[in-house]
Amino acid sequence: MAGPIRRYLEAALGAAELEREAGGFRARIPQLGVEAEGASAPEVLRRLEDAAEEALLDRLFAGEPLPAFGEVRLEPTGTAPPPDPLRLLARLKRDLSRLEAALGGAGSGSESDPLVAWLSERGLKVVRVFADEGPEMARVLNRLALFIGGRYPVLAKCLKKLKAALSTGKPLVHSLQKAAPDEIQTVTQLCTLFKDYAFFEEYHYKGRIVRAKPARDPRFINFTNGGWLERYLALLLERELPGPKRLLRGLQFTLPEGEQGELDLLLRWRDRVFWIEAKTANFQDRIRRYAELRKRLGLSPEASFLVLLDVPKERREKLAGLYQLSVVEPGELLARIREQAGA
User: Fold this and answer.
1) CA distance linking residue 64 with residue 222, whole number of Å
2) Which of 96, 193, 264, 266 is least crowded, fewest Cβ atoms below 10 Å from its Cβ?
């Protein structure tokens, strides 16, 4: 990404301090007060970047001052000049090479995934599993998903208009004339992020009117049309459920009779398997198939989740009883899984 947030983050990572410790590595950026630990060099650097971006956005949105990294600065209402990319890349490559050499070049294994094997036992042949779009794009989309997921009620109107704009190819025009201050702040923060990450080619806010030209990037279109919810739930499960776990996204499969399908999320935690489908709209044409697939998987209704937005509790309960699924809103998912796993 070429926006000022991305440039500032790259400069901050260029100033990171990396040390080897017993059993792993530690990396920190003292100026931002963030650090990370990990068993391998790539792992600790990925965690450090996530922590740095989270701290950066928290300070930026709170209007707090940010430290400069060389000539690179970022103000809450300003932009930052770019760092020297060659110097940054050389620094990162040097540190990675040094730390990976110290690790002895350990690599990942190639054993069959236990969740894929679990599905195979039930007659589902997995032909593809979701793979991140690349570490940088994944970090951007993860950050945006967490932002939207944690603030969805006040972003819902703007997101619906954004989806409509993307489907028609027209600009986004969203009025905040009657909005409360927290909605105005949250919507404009999200639009600023979209602009900084180049998902908005143009963005203006004047007279409490948001005007933007969304980029025709397929990744952004998929994200806005509902991919953010699946990503948000995956991040919650990874971060909030303690202990060992295995989570797979976007499992495309075929059945013995040739039918094809996809599972949004499949989780193994505390010796229990949970299946989660995330829908931001138009769930009516899928819910009967979900009910049939639950039986094929041999999962109880309590371990099979359909996560919906903007559906009243009374209607969710009726759908759950009719189709023998746990129909919940995003805020209910973690508690239900913890309850079923005895956590």
Assistant:
1) 33
2) 96
> What CATH number was assigned to the domain covering residues 135-219?
3.30.110
Residues with Cβ < 8 Å from 223, sequence gap 6 or more?
A: 141, 144, 145, 231
Instruction: Give the total residue count for the chain.
Output: 343
Q: What are the structure tokens assigned to 205, written together?
A: 């806010």
Query: Is the pLDDT confidence value at 101 over 60?
Result: no
Q: HEC string of the chain?
A: CCCHHHHHHHHHHHCCEEEEECCEEEEEEHHHCEEEEECCHHHHHHHHHHHHHHHHHHHHHHCCCCCCECCECCCCCCCCCCCCHHHHHHHHHHHHHHHHHHHCCCCCCCCCCHHHHHHHHCCCEEEECCCCCCHHHHHHHHHHHHHHHHCHHHHHHHHHHHHHHHHHCCCEEEECCCCCHHHHHHHHHHHHHHHHCCCEEEEEEECCEEEEEECCCHHHHHHHHHHHHHHHHHHHHHHHCCCCEEEEEEEEEECCCCCEEEEEEEEEECCEEEEEEEECCCCCCCHHHHHHHHHHHCCCHHHEEEEECCCCHHHHHHHHHHHCCEEECHHHHHHHHHHHHCC
Residue 79 has pLDDT above 80, yes or no: no
Q: Rounded to the nearest 10 degrees, what angle do helices 135-150 and 181-196 cross at?
A: 170
Q: pLDDT digit string (tens) for 140-166?
A: 999 999 999 999 999 999 999 999 999
Residues contacting 124, CB < 8 A, separation 6+? 253, 254, 255, 261, 296, 297
Query: pTM for the complete prediction?
Result: 0.71
Residue-range domain boundaries for the chain: 4-103, 135-219
Give pLDDT tens digits for 198-249. Answer: 999 999 999 999 999 999 988 899 999 999 999 999 999 999 999 999 999 9
Pick the CATH number of 4-103 from 3.30.160.250, 3.40.50.970, 3.60.20.10, 3.20.20.10: 3.30.160.250
Distance CA 150, CA 182 (A): 13
